[in-house]
Amino acid sequence: MRQALADSLARAAQHNNKVLLLTGDHGYALFDDFRRLFPSRYLNAGVAEQNMVGMAAGLARAGYFPIVYGLSAFIPIRVLEQIKLDVCHSNLPVIFLGDGAGLVYSTLGTSHQSTEDIAATRALANLAVYSPADRFEMSAVLDLALSRRNPTYIRIGKCDLGEVHSTALTLANNDIPTLRERDSPISFIATGSMVKMAIALADEFGASVHSVPIIKPFNKELFLKITSHSQKIVTLEEHSVYGGLGGMIAELMSEKRPTNILRIGVDDRFSHNCGSYQYLLEDHGLDIESVRMKLRRFLG
Amino acid sequence: MHPTFDTKKLRRTILDMAYAGSGVHIACAFSIVEIMATLYREHLRFPNGDPDAATRDYLVLSKGHGVMAQYACMRELGWLPDEAFSNYLSDGSALKGLPDSRLPGTEVDSGSLGHGFSIGVGLAMGAKLSMTDQKTYVIVGDGEINEGPIWEGCLFASHHQLHNFMVIIDENGFQAMGKTNEILALNSIQSKFESFGFDTLSIDGHDEIAISQAIHQLQKNRSKSPKALIAQTIKGKGVSFMAHNNIWHYTRLNSDTHAKAITELSGDSQ
After folding, report:
1. Fold of B7-264
2. Position A173 pLDDT exceeds 80
């Protein structure tokens, strides 16, 4: 997935000589190709994220297409106001890449963990929010962001879990890819790193599975259509149960078609201890055994 | 008619719009009137008079609280109709109490402080990458430079030798709640910017000739450093009962104070 990102960035710069890459001193090996091919279009802004985002807005106003990279705990969380005021308010073409979202930095603690970024960014007007699950979705959402030329946040979570799609895909602005099609009363709706788990548990519970790489703008009509048989919906995300994918689906269904929903995610708390990624998933009840138990309780 | 940017007239415009809209921040605007007038009259280049021209110079009012001084200059340029002033802050007013970048000629959304400086650094970096001779001028308040991103931006501007970038610091000695040296002492602003690698000059920020000469002098300098012009100003300058009186950061005009202030500013500056 990271390689797909690196390749897409280099390809974007090749196609558009206004594409710039800004980093707040993060992403060491990720940008090797970009730096080699386009040294003057790579800017390490230093450990100064607020200034970096303001500058990105200035560069966009001067005709450039900045892609701003950082860890999701900092981009967008630390610089949320700069994203809102400097970029979103004028609808400037700036893409934000927030890496390591969720519990990826499992040993580093709360400063580097990011389970509130979707909630924070969803509420910013003009900002598209993408959350790819594998390398195919990664390439597709970056291509989509580059073609739309609007403010975009791309959430990059655990990226070495393997693929959920079998081939490359093109995402239109309103797609909700179906990964397990069934006329089932149970729908699993997942995003990012949790899509893989949704697929792993789908057969056991006879559920259909849909990935949501495009959190915003969300295609409500399509969602209501693909879940028209659903009596129970389960959302899965490596993010707080507040304000993220689960919150969004609950908002929609409560308005349009009240449905029983189980929101699986981080339950409004920080991690207590550190350890492996698997350890932290277990700590938050997001490992496959814990999720299976929650599903059994909910689905009966 | 060719705009003169007469500073008495600009201040009258500010008073009239503030009175019409019951607006605040009059003193914040008054301290930058001469800076604004000088920039618009002698330095900023807008090809074909177009505030959105792609090759324009950039004026970033990072200190958004002085926005009425900018509106007054835009009126001189014919960019804003008179109704925008008589209807200031009324329902549906396009002119807001703080800058909105969707208004032509306004580069940034300000009011939340410490944003415009970084945006200006980005504009200057863009001009450098595009190899144009566009200049970027950023006006910040001395209270505003409490904000951290200003100093992050200084590091970047200096490291990348953004000699096309000039920050003008409106050093009026006050911020919202009192004197800057009593709230968060800045000591020498000039030496701070010098230590960040800026070429600096300090001038009387109400002397238009001195402002213009200093801008020319800094730009004539062949150094690759970014520039900082420290403008010693008076908050509320131009009206006797507003000068040095920080309540005019917040106070609204009534018919009496409006009339008194207008009387003090009658006639032309020359």
Report:
1. Rossmann fold (3.40.50)
2. no
